[in-house]
């Protein structure tokens, strides 16, 4: 099955399950209040992190450095803000994890880690050859 299709159906199902379970434990009004509270706090924190990332990016540009980390960080903050707007506990948890700089750095390291070159990849088989053109253009 398509991965997007599984995510498209799986995340709302998990969100509904969590809303029912948590709503059964703490009550419906408290659950709704908690969803709104996490959205408001998350959006506020995303705004602060976004401003800090913009300042860091401008500082990198003034130092003639490419603001690669800031661009990726800004994109993850935008995704985190979107996840925090969507009502639910799973998306709020993922959104808050993307907002925290420590967990964001861990995620970046996992996503962009370089594969260590082992001995097999160092010993690549190279075949030298020469290209001979049979149909030479003669003037």
Describe the model.
This protein has 139 residues and is an all-alpha fold. It has one domain (11-111). Helices cover 74% and strands 0% of the residues. The chain is built from 6 helices and no strands. Helix 1 packs across helix 2 (28-62), helix 2 packs antiparallel against helix 3 and helix 2 (28-62) runs parallel beside helix 4. The longest helix is centred in the N-terminal third of the chain and has 35 residues, at 28-62. The termini are far apart. The relative contact order is 0.10. The model has no long low-confidence stretch (mean pLDDT 85).
Distance linking N and C termini? 59 Å
Low-confidence stretches: none
Percent of residues in helical segments? over 70%
Beta fraction: under 5%
- pLDDT averaged over residues: 85
Number of helices: 6
Helix-strand topology string: HHHHHH
| Radius of gyration of CA atoms, rounded to a whole number | 25 Å
Bulk shape: elongated
Number of β-strand runs: 0
Largest sheet: none
Number of domains: 1
Structural class: mainly alpha
Topology:
Elements: H1 3-26, H2 28-62, H3 68-85, H4 89-99, H5 101-111, H6 119-122
Helix pairs in contact: 1-2, 2-3, 2-4, 3-4
Question: Can you describe this structure in just a few lines?
Answer:
This protein has 139 residues and is mainly alpha-helical.
Which key features would you list for this structure?
single chain, 139 residues, mainly alpha, elongated
